[in-house]
Design brief:
Layout: H1 2-20, H2 26-36, E1 41-47, E2 54-60, E3 70-74, E4 83-85
Antiparallel strand pairs: 1-2, 2-3, 3-4
């Protein structure tokens, strides 16, 4: 029984050590982009950045709002809450001229 407790304790210690070294993963960036934009992610690539920060480039399925994709910057590599979408959604106001009501 004590061997089992020692094994369980070692497993818990290893899991805590792994959590302390956590880094922002692609799924965290996908979640952020899905919740905050209408991008519809096709792919994500990590960009070169400072040692304690992360930058990502996302290619979007919605090329009408994000023709060049979007960029995400994370100021803390251990906290996905520090990530922000840098690219603003593009709006083409001239397209409203084609609507039956005309321009706003």
């Amino acid at each position: 029984m004590t061997e089992w407790a020692a094994l369980l304790g070692a497993a818990m210690l290893l899991s805590l050590a792994g959590a302390a070294g956590a880094e922002i993963q692609d799924y965290m960036i996908r979640r952020l982009v899905t919740l905050e934009t209408g991008c519809g992610i096709e792919s994500i690539v990590r960009l070169a950045s400072k040692p304690n920060a992360r930058r990502f480039k996302a290619t979007c399925l919605n090329v009408s709002s994000y023709p060049d994709g979007l960029t995400i910057a994370c100021s803390d590599i251990d906290d996905d809450r520090s990530c922000v979408v840098e690219t603003k959604e593009q709006e083409f106001k001239a397209l409203r001229l084609l609507q039956p009501d005309g321009p706003p």
